[in-house]
Amino acid sequence: MNRKLATVLAAGAGLTLVLSGCASGGTSDAGSGASGDSAEGGLISIIVNDPSNPYWQTEGNVAEAEAKALGYEANVAASKGDTNTESNLIDTAITNKSVAIILDPANASGSVGAVKKADAAGIPVILVNAEINETGLAKAQLVSNNAQGAALGAQQWVKDVGDTGDYAELFGAPSDNNAQTRSNGYATVISQYPGLTEVAEQVANWDRTQGHDKMQSILQANPDITGVISGNDEMALGAIAALKEAGKLEQVKVGGFDGSPDAVEAVKSGELQYTVLQPVATFAKKAVEQADSYIRTGETGASEEKQAFDCILITKENADKVTEPFTLAE
């Protein structure tokens, strides 16, 4: 695995909006019941991954609310991480004459074509949460500072697990560059402790059920592990469920990444050692603001296409300050 040095920057998270969530089955197709000229500002199509995950649910809700607050019509659709579905949703957004598209890309390489289609149709695309492997197509790419967040998490993880022992890693979707960036960030910190040995790495695709099942397999082969470091909260929460079933949760310390409501509650209860809060509500709102700026002026107002927003470590000490989804109170 390529071990890249994680760069830790200083920053903070912004204020978010709290909205009622949508279940995965209640997500509408882009443009359903809407047309590009049905609101004064036009239609902004928002395409997220899977709103059954609270992270993506918040991403879509905040972007939709900000678009409406700025005078646009908006709706949220889900690709479920499938590039064919994503491509069809982009086609629908083009057909409905969207004035902008907010897109959480399904695949770093596979989503390039979809962005090209929108760009060729003259529709500005603002990417959120995940990047694509090409610059100059999207008008902006707004993501969490995953390297910085991974370093924060790994440092806390070592404090909780100790500097010796066998451990396992749950890896996110390989098609998402965030998965490798976080894994590299973890490795940069943990490699400084030669007494810690990674005995298993399993891909669980950001999913709680897969995290549970992969954790069961890991325990069968490695019953004496003392730590699990996870690429996101959903996989970590699945691992915790498997560890509880095996009666090993006290023995194995688990760390997460996202700052989801369920993870924050698990931190408060002591089942999860920490989570790394991604300021998704902040950059989802900012993405719509930049889309609005581009529609009005031809510029996003940002100095760079790629913009990283720093993460915040959540432990028992500050978990009570997470009073709204993915937002740490001042």
Structure in words:
It is built from nine helices and twelve strands. The strands form three sheets. A six-stranded parallel beta sheet has the order 2-1-3-4-5-11, with helices on both faces. Strands 7-6-8-9 form a four-stranded parallel beta sheet, with helices on both faces. It has a two-stranded antiparallel sheet with strand order 10-12. Helix content is 37%, strand content 17%. The longest helix has 18 residues, at 280-297. The radius of gyration is 20 Å and the shape is elongated. The chain has helices at 54-69, 83-95, 112-120, 146-161, 177-190, 208-221, 233-245, 261-269, 280-297, and strands at residues 43-48, 73-78, 100-103, 125-128, 140-144, 165-171, 196-203, 227-230, 253-255, 275-277, 306-309, 312-314. The protein has two domains: 24-144 and 279-309, 3-Layer(aba) Sandwich (Rossmann fold); 146-277, Rossmann fold. With 330 residues, it is of the alpha/beta class. The model is unreliable at 1-39 (pLDDT under 50). Helix 1 links the parallel strand 1 (43-48) and strand 2 (73-78).
